[in-house]
Design goal:
mainly alpha; three-stranded antiparallel beta sheet; disordered C terminus; DNA-binding; elongated; Arc Repressor Mutant, subunit A; homodimer; 7 helices
Chain lengths: ~130, ~130
DNA sequence: TATACAGTTCAATATTCGTTGAACTATCGT
DNA sequence: ACGATAGTTCAACGAATATTGAACTGTATA
């Protein structure tokens, strides 16, 4: 995963309306939501929502699919998890014990690392 | 976890220098880094770094501890994971099977939910 | 084809953010 | 106490962001 992409993701999530919209789509799951549903849920004028949805889409955090005259948006959970994996790369210099301590035993991140590095193939993988 | 806090976290991570600084601190683990080390690693003037470190600190993503005339910064991994948990709340309407599909089988998030809801005690948990 | 509906695009404005240089505070070594 | 080191704070300027209203594109329906 490139840093530019990661920055776009974080910037996308650093606005109230985009954060709300994304969380709504996360809750909606694979079914996603149509733009109008999001606008209603967030009580936003359509042009403003469109602006934010565009940012979310360009970041890759959401996908759009046309459905008649509707636009159906869906959360890209995978990208979000890849982003977290990017943040955690070489956490604690890859010392698992020190890392567990720092996390307060929250949950093991190892599966994230493995998956992320296998799929996004970071830098040295090639 | 409150939305305001989450927004601060994402805004903190949506700048190149803050993202770099945070990742450096993640790699450094519990030992953290002194401001000068970060400035050297990132090739930034101290006043500019100070500006960004302040934002990171205010978001809670990093902590500071004075050490003689140095300031030692450490990543708050826990907050970052809590933030991810906030994003994933009620993912796919809490349908684990649909959720696993959406994630592309990346890794199970259940431990995140449990931990996050147990500690931050969100809204409907009670 | 004409009308309504669903969303997007555009221009303008106000606000916020990031960088720079200068001055400042606090600590260490002598 | 003095100078040097480590960092922070402040003011100012340019760049980027968010919101609004108006006009626009495309799809459905009569």
């Amino acid at each position: 995963m490139e840093q530019d992409k990661v920055l776009q993701v974080f910037e996308a999530l650093s606005s109230t309306v985009r954060l709300d919209a994304f969380r709504l789509l996360v809750r909606a799951g694979g079914g996603g939501c149509v733009a109008g549903e999001i606008a209603a849920a967030l009580a936003l004028p359509p042009n403003n929502l469109s602006f934010h949805l565009k940012a979310l889409t360009q970041s890759g955090l959401v996908t759009v699919e046309q459905e008649g005259r509707f636009q159906r948006y869906r959360a890209n959970i995978r990208l979000m998890l890849d982003t977290v994996a990017y943040l955690m790369e070489n956490c604690c210099g890859d010392n698992p014990q020190a890392c567990a301590e720092l996390r307060g035993g929250m949950f093991t991140l190892t599966p994230i690392f493995e998956s992320a590095q296998a799929t996004s193939g970071e830098d040295g993988a090639a």
